[in-house]
Design a protein that fits this description.
Elements lengths: L1 H10 L9 E2 L7 H16 L6 H12 L5 H15 L1 H7 L2 E3 L1
Antiparallel strand pairs: 1-2
């Protein structure tokens, strides 16, 4: 299990406090990205995991930031990385740390 934990930390450096920026590919629609974030949050809401990632999700949408479509898509991938780090990396890959 410790290997899985280390793999997850490497895949999602944002979970350890590091900044990560994803690049959302054009082949996946914004609505599909939104849906993936929603599905991941709903699936994890049934577990007894720490709620820090739910707080980040709530804070992001509560802030109601003015973003371009591209920035919004990258933000969705960062949020998805909190719930499904490997999926976020497969979809957009880390652009920079």
């Amino acid at each position: 299990m410790s290997n899985d934990h280390n793999q997850r930390r490497r895949t999602n450096p944002g979970a350890s406090g590091e900044s990560i920026h994803y690049h959302a590919p054009s082949w996946i629609s914004t609505s599909d990205l939104e849906q993936e974030v929603l599905w991941a949050a709903v699936a994890d809401s049934r577990s007894f995991q720490p709620e820090e990632r739910f707080e980040r999700l709530d804070a992001y949408f509560a802030a109601d930031l003015e973003e371009t479509e591209s920035q919004y898509r990258c933000s969705l991938l960062r949020l998805l990385a909190d719930f499904r780090p490997q999926l976020a990396e497969l979809l957009g890959g880390p652009r920079e740390y």
